[in-house]
Amino acid sequence: MNEREDGPHDGGPEEAFAGARLHIVTGKGGTGKTTVATALALALATDGGRVLLVEVEGRQGVASLLESDPLPHEEREALSAPGGGSVSVLAADAEAALLEYLDLFYGMRRAGRALSGLGAVDFATSIAPGLRDVLLTGKITEAVQRREGGRRRPPGSGTGRHHYDAVVLDAPPTGRIGSFLNVHSEVAGLATTGPVHDQAERAMKVVRSDRTRVHFVTTPEEMPVQETREGIAEIEASGLRVGAVIVNMVGPTLLDAADLSATAAAGPDVDAITEGLKAAGLDDPALLSEGLASELRTYALRHLLELRLLGELRETGRPLLTLSRLESGAPRSALSGLARRLTEQGARR
């Protein structure tokens, strides 16, 4: 894919991350989107940063990853980053966002609770799904704009430092990311004036800002890579800024290019493997060598596929970051390693 002259583009990883305040992380289901979003939040918090990690799908994926109790619908500090930084987490909820919105702008928290008790919020979002996204994006963009001094002032007011240095959104998957972010068009049929319209306008101003980036998480497999390419095209066509492509679960490089091609084409030298196993004193080296040869050829075929798909992703013109496959999953203890790897590749504030 060639870069379009009429669209916003970024250069290397530094431009994809540095200076951005809202990092929207999307990807096909099963690619490790939540793990990558959490690791990115840790990376951005390194050396004293304050970062908010937000999830909006109601899956409590971050809580599961951190092996913690379900997250409340309020911000709380959850992770410490190297150099004195911290990551707070939030499970954003449309109903909680509405209550806060009514309280912040109209002093109507009690009336909002009454509406909630009557089921008005659920009813409204069921007949107008776009309203839910407006409420959620409104909550996220409020956190991006919030200044020191608390939440008692409308977003963007005040001159103090921002409460958070960056906000990372564990966003909906690529199949829904376009409609989720394009809240202005989603709400156009609901209201052309009034509070809902104004909320959407404020949210879109932040989403379309040059300090917002949409990052795509994929694995080196055919379907996720194709969906990533299509997602990048959709986001660019919407005028939003694509950041980096983060390729998760990349296998290790065990063979040089020549051996990799030869092994994939004809398999490894079984006799050589047998001799090596025999020299090591293993029992029944001939039987064991057949299994090892089969595993090695499978690896070679798989790795060649990964290399081809990585090449296709580079054709998008987006900075490409890679993370290794974690055989034992990604518990809390592994996140620091993923964050360090992202930092080494340019994921910094």
TrEMBL record:
This is ArsA-related P-loop ATPase. It comes from the Bacteria. InterPro entries: ArsA/GET3_ATPase-like, ATPase_ArsA/GET3, P-loop_NTPase. Residues 23-183, 206-250 form the ArsA/GET3 Anion-transporting ATPase-like domain. Pfam families: ArsA_ATPase (PF02374). It comes from Nocardiopsis alba.
